[in-house]
Amino acid sequence: GSSGSSGQALASDSEEADEVPEWLREGEFVTVGAHKTGVVRYVGPADFQEGTWVGVELDLPSGKNDGSIGGKQYFRCNPGYGLLVRPSRVRRATSGPSSG
């Protein structure tokens, strides 16, 4: 027999939803912010702040780190290519060649 622990401490009044879309997973090509593009390398919790975070390895060195923040390695990439953002900042990039 296992005693059920009640871990129902969800904040229902939070305006920013940290819900991760179904498509958002490691390996997905995404757009961060206005015009940054990259590949999702990490989806999950972070030590520096509560909530769900998305680690992105950018195509260009316009990031802030190499996938490690505060001494913890969330994912690995070249220095300056790593970025950890909220799921709300990430959008699914249009896959395939665009016809203009």
Give the averaged pLDDT, no decimals.
85
Quaternary structure of the protein: single chain
What is the share of helical residues? under 10%
Radius of gyration: 16 Å
Largest β sheet strand count, sense and barrel closure: 5 strands, antiparallel
Structural class: mainly beta
Amount of beta strand: 25-35%
C-alpha geometry: globular
Query: Tell me, what is the CATH class of the domain at 29-91?
Result: Mainly Beta
Low confidence ranges? none
CATH fold name of the domain at 29-91? SH3 type barrels
User: What is the CATH-assigned architecture of the domain at 29-91?
Assistant: Roll
What order do the SSEs take from the amino end to the carboxyl end, as H and E?
EEEEEEE
- Tally of extended strands? 7
Q: What is the tally of helical segments?
A: 0
Give me the CATH superfamily of the domain at 29-91: CAP Gly-rich-like domain
- How far apart are the first and last residues' alpha carbons, in Å? 61 Å
Strand order of the largest sheet: 6-3-2-1-7
Essential attributes:
single chain, 100 residues, mainly beta, SH3 type barrels, 5-stranded antiparallel β-sheet, 0% helix
Question: What do you see in this structure?
Answer:
There is one protein chain. This protein has a domain at 29-91: SH3 type barrels, CATH 2.30.30.190. β2 and β3 (52-58) form a beta hairpin. It is mainly beta. The chain has a five-stranded antiparallel β-sheet, with no helix packed on it. The protein has a two-stranded antiparallel ribbon with strand order 4-5. It is built from no helices and seven strands. 0% of the residues lie in helices and 32% in strands. The radius of gyration is 16 Å and the shape is globular.
